[in-house]
Design brief:
alpha+beta; Ubiquitin-like (UB roll)
Length: about 325
Amino acid sequence: MKRFRGLIVVLFFSTFFSICSAFCFSVHAQEKSGEVLKQLERKELIPPEKPSEPPVIEIEKDKVEEKDKDAVRFKVSEFKVEGATLLDVETIRSITAPYENKELTLSEISNIAEAITNEYRKKGYIIAYAFIPAQDIEKEIVRIRIIEGKIGDIAVTGNKHYSAEFIQKRLETARKDPSLKEDTLERALLILNEYPSLNVKASLKAGKEPGTADIIAAATDSRYISAGISYDNFGSEVISKHRASIWFDTGSLVADGDLLMLRGVTGLDKIDLDKLSYGRIEYIFPVDRNGTKLGFYQHMAHLRGQHLSPAKVLPDSADHYGKQRQQDL
């Protein structure tokens, strides 16, 4: 009996592959075709491989030597803030006004610049900052300078199967902000990490030009291939209680980030492809740098049962095809 059942499984898969290559399935439906197709069809637009952790964004920080800044106090009547375009005047004044007309130390003045920097962080600007430039204090006025950093170069390291250009284009979307925002960069990383067998982490370092920061994208990737065989007894006794399934997925066949998915199911109670067989082929590919994907699919089914009510009239075949569009939000 075991040898007989093993022979049945071998015959099933050899027959399945020959049918897929010919790309034809005829159908005789006896149960509700829609219900059976829902059981058999597995829509997996994006493979289950997902990064287990949120995107990592690291910022290179300069080491600051701690010095005794509290040795000298001097009178400050006014703070003059230069270069701020992304914070309104009221916000800046709410930080600086409480310290005017007071004697302050260099440490306290530095804390004011840090408070302004923190306001940029609250708004998501991760490379904008305030600092105290070298100056001669005249008329008790202290200047605070703002650098609203821009993106410099975008470099990709570690990639083997995905092109550097593919990764760079997705990160280029971060340039749309007047100064780099954390949410924009994080979204670009999330989109990249949804592609099969690709994981990208980003770090920031000082750029070549003053006021710029370079994005260093460290990629880990591999050729995506996934296949499997499964068995279940969740089928209908009318068609076949015992079923076997096979699937095969592979990515980056024609272009970076594309995905080809093949699915097949047949009954094992009695190997009869005219009684129960189902196949689906689906192809998805990216169309822009914002995560939009376009896909095409076709599925074919063979369903034929017994003990049917004469009142039920069902189609003899099911051969469907279509297209789909997917947009990441």
